[in-house]
Every structure is written in C-alpha cells, then in structure tokens.
Amino acid sequence: MNRPAIWSEQKEILFEDNHLLIVNKTAGTLVQADETRDEPLSVKAAEYLRLKYKKPGNAFIGVCHRIDRPVSGIVVLAKTSKALSRLNEMFRDNHMHKTYWALVGKAPQVMEGTLVHWLVKDPMRNVTKAYPQKHQQGQRAELNYKVLGQVGHRYLLEVNPITGRPHQIRVQLSTGLGTPITGDVKYGAMAPLPDLSIALHARRLQFKHPVTHQEMDIVAPLPDAEVWDPIRSGELVQ
After folding, report:
1. Under 8 Å CB-to-CB from 90, ≥6 apart: which residues?
2. What keywords are annotated for this sequence in UniProt (predicted)?
C-alpha cells in the first residue's frame, strides 16, 4: 500500500474516520512545528493523508492538543474544520478523560490522591514551576494519581489530569510527590534515558466523538522502549 513508512494501521494509527485521525506518537516527535524546524507530527499526518487518498494538494490536519516532545502516546488530529472546532471546545471544557502512565524511581508516601498546584511557566527556559498555594501569575493545575504497582526498582503510576497545563504531570509529580518521572532530568530525574525520552505515556483517552457522538475509548500500546519492557512482560507487582 502507498503509505509513508512511519505510518501503519494498528500501530501508529489507533483510529481513523472521515473526521478524526488518532495517532500513537513516538517519543521524540514534535506535535506541531517549533523553532527547531524538525518535521512535526502534523506534517507527517498530512502527508499520510495526501498519499493514502491520492489528494492533489495538501490535506487538512488540525491540531487541537499537544503532548510534550519526549512523551509518547495518544494525539488526536482533526481531518475537518468542523471536528477541529468541536475538539477545541471539548479539550477546553475538560470533556476529554485522559489517562497517562508514568514510571518513577520511588513510591509516593501516599499511594493514591489528588494534587493541586499553581503553575508558572518560564518560556525562556521552557520549564514550569509548581506552587502549592495560589500564585498571582499561576494557572491552577489539578490531577489524580494512584500507584498501580512496582516493577523492579520503579513504580507505575496512573495519572488522570483534570486540567491541561504545560508540563503539568511532569512538574506536579516531581514537586508534589517528590517522584520525578524516569528520564525527566528537566524535572529532577537523576539521569536521562538512552533515547532521551521520558517514561510518560498518554495511555488512554475517553470522549464522545465530536461529529457522530459515538462513545470513544482509545488505548495506546506502550512504546518499543527498554524502560517499558518489564511492563509488557507482565513483571508488574501490584
């Protein structure tokens, strides 16, 4: 089949219809273009659609949310302007139930709970600081977490962000729990991973289709990275 080599149904592509293209992003890939000029997911997706449907011009791809470059997992892209507009509203109004998996180097003192911080981003350094009390320049950030189990010397956390702030999960786990995500040296991890990814994966997304109103439940397989191998092998101890 005439496809760019990076795309394959059932692997990178988790769902596709006339309105949506849902992709399992690999760590290291940008979602949208930035100053690095590296090819982003949005451009790769447009090229995939152009080749698949033999479009003479550029294919429409709308970006309605992002996950950080070193993070893997689910990204929803819009194939129509109608879908894009409605998805933007759904993300803004927190009508998307997001589940992330994170590997950390030690167990939190409290195995399940809620974190609330006020986040202030430093755009020059591209880092975010979390404050436990209301901050005049901060955005309120909230997430729920629970420890799913232990694998070797690491712990697997399930994280459900209630809000969607830049670097939210990364900084809240590090600041609020004292458990930096494995490989995330920007937020306190001791060492990077070999592929420079971080052990944070956008695992599941539940929402109502913006056009057909079908109930959607998308799950992204774990990336082919050594850090996730013990989870795939069933070594998680609950």
Report:
1. 96, 207, 208, 210
2. Isomerase
DSSP code for 221: P
Task: Say if residues 221 and 73 touch (Cβ distance below 8 Å).
Answer: no
> What is the per-residue pLDDT across 173-194, written as a single tens digit (0 to 9) for each?
999 999 999 999 999 999 999 9
DSSP-derived letter for residue 227 is G
pLDDT tens-digit readout, 45-54 = 999 998 888 8
Q: Find the catalytic residue in 68, 93, 195, 229.
A: 68
Lookup: tokens for 50:
């152009």
3-class SS at 148?
strand
Which of 109, 136, 107, 106 has its CA nearest to residue 120? 136
Distance, in Å, from the CA atom of 174 to the CA atom of 114, rounded to the nearest integer, reads: 14
* Mean per-residue pLDDT, 57-66: 91
- Which DSSP category does 51 fall into? H
Residue 217 designated active-site: no
Nearest to 159 by CA among 191, 190, 207, 200: 200
What is the pTM (predicted TM-score) of this model?
0.93
Domain 13-223 in CATH 3.90.1280.20: no
